[in-house]
Amino acid sequence: MLPLARWAGRSLTAVLLSTVFAWGVPVASPAAAPPVQAAAARSITLDPSQGAPGSRVGVHGYGFDHCTTAGLAPEPRPTETAEAAEIRVSWEGGENPRFVTADAQGEFEIGVAVPSDATPGSYDVTALCTVDSKLKATADFQVTPEPVPTSLTLDPAEGAVRTPVAVTGSGFDGCTADRGAAGTVTLTWDGSPLPDVTPAEVTVDGGAFTAEFAVPSDADATDHTVTAACAGYEQVSAEQRFTVTAAPGPQPEVTLDPPSLPFGGGSVAVSGSGFNCPEVALSWEGEQRGTAAPAEDGTFDTGFDVTPDTGEASYTVRAECTDDSGVGAEAVFAVTGAGPVPPTPTPPTPTPSTPTPNPNPNPNPNPEPAPVTVPVGLLVGSVLLGAALLALAGSAYLSQRHRGPRWVHDHVSSRLRPAPAATDTAEPSETGPPTRSVRLEPHPDPGDQTLKEEDS
Asked: What is the mean pLDDT of residues 280-300?
């Protein structure tokens, strides 16, 4: 056993030695080189990134920490004795550049102006280190068209109340709706919406619009402000002054004759004044009842009918100009007295029914009798009453029947003799004195007897 173990150990040692000679002695790996710090990416940002000619732009730079007076310095940044070099910021590399230096982190901020003669388009803003042209960054700036100021024109710009005015607006290119569609413009008078503007919200087409309105009838004789503002973008707006040259005339009035009627309906006359418009609409509780054409002095006369079924209440009658609902007046009409109370219906008096004739001209010669229904109580009572009567009759019959000849022969004996009447025959009793007796009393023959009735 021992020689075998010694042989196995020697074999394992030989294998290990041959492996060492084949692969060689392990060599130590060289020390890892220190990591190289990547330089920060150089860039500039513009705020804003677009604008009109003459606008100012802020420039913010990053990654200019190696722009120093030492020139091309080894990494990392040279010692603090090296000063930061200037960075040249220019518009399209042109004249009048701006100069700035970066801080220890390589950042800087400066502002530049968009040339006033720049046309709409794309331009480069460049930041360049003055000692190293490789340290450079560029950003794009979009020059937009110079905005056109909004304007509003009123024609006429002055007039009396209810004067029609035409409105024209321009410069509303920025008034847009969803998905770039044209927006709408609303008109106001001294900050309040104008009634019945045509149209109420004006569609913008190419930055311009037109509309019409009438000077409010209650406007004072002074200056007023008409404003057009984009719906949803009120900053896109314009305003204009309108001068009212005359104070408002007499206010519209409506008179009803009579002012009330009792229940049952009737006719009502309507008179109006102060209606300086071509046509007046008359309404009852908001429902139009007719129209009238005022005279030159603004008066009119018309009327309407109150239906008979109109209930007791107060109703509003209004007259207003059809072209300006703000010019109008109201009056109250009253219906008095409740409607008639319907009489209480009297139930009809029943009339005797007459037999209905048989519509069949050929009646059945042998009609079957209709079945008769007898109550159970009546039937049972009748049976019991009949049984009781039969029992009573039988008892009376048995108690009053005559004795038979045999019974008389055994119990009755008689003997005739000239003697006074006496009771000689008796019915014996087994327990006491006789119960019955017979008295015989002879009498002479009375002969024929005649009875005669006389009137007293």
From this structure: 91
With b for 16 or more beta-carbon neighbours within 10 A and e for fewer, the 103-142 pattern comes to: eeebebebebebbeebeeeebebbbbbebbeebbbebebe
Type of residue found at 448: D
Q: What is the structure's pLDDT at 148?
A: 76
Comparing C-alpha atoms, which of 57, 58, 39, 47 is closest to residue 132?
Answer: 39
What string of DSSP letters covers 359-372? --SS--SSPPPPPP
First vs last Cα of the chain: how many Å apart? 192
Parallel, antiparallel, or unpaired for β 151-155 and 164-170? antiparallel
Q: What pLDDT was estimated at residue 258?
A: 93
Residue holding tokens 């109201």?
A: 330
Are the CB atoms for 173 and 165 separated by under 8 Å? no
For residues 77 and 61, give the distance between their C-alpha atoms in angstroms, rounded to a whole number. 18
The predicted structure's pLDDT at residue 265:
86
Which pLDDT does position 37 carry in this prediction? 44
> How many Å apart are CA 9 and CA 6, to the nearest integer?
5
pLDDT of the residue at 389: 79
Q: How far apart are CA 286 and CA 29, in angstroms?
A: 103
Return d(Cα 4, Cα 295) in angstroms, integer: 145
- Give pTM, 2 decimals: 0.37
Instruction: Name the token pair of 325.
Output: 């609902």
pLDDT at 232: 81
Measuring CA to CA, which residue among 120, 132, 58 is closest to residue 89?
58
d(CA 182, CA 176): 5
pLDDT per residue over 151-163, tens digit each? Answer: 999 999 999 988 9
3 state SS of 403: coil
Strand partners, 272: 254, 300
Contact assessment for residue 206 and residue 176, using Cβ atoms and an 8 Å cutoff: no
Do residues 98 and 80 touch, judged by C-beta distance below 8 A?
A: no
Nearest to 271 by CA among 293, 291, 283, 253: 253
CB within 8 Å of 20: residues ≥ 6 apart: none
Task: Summarize pLDDT for 142-201 with one digit per residue, the tens.
Answer: 988 777 789 999 999 999 988 999 999 988 877 877 666 778 888 999 999 887 776 667
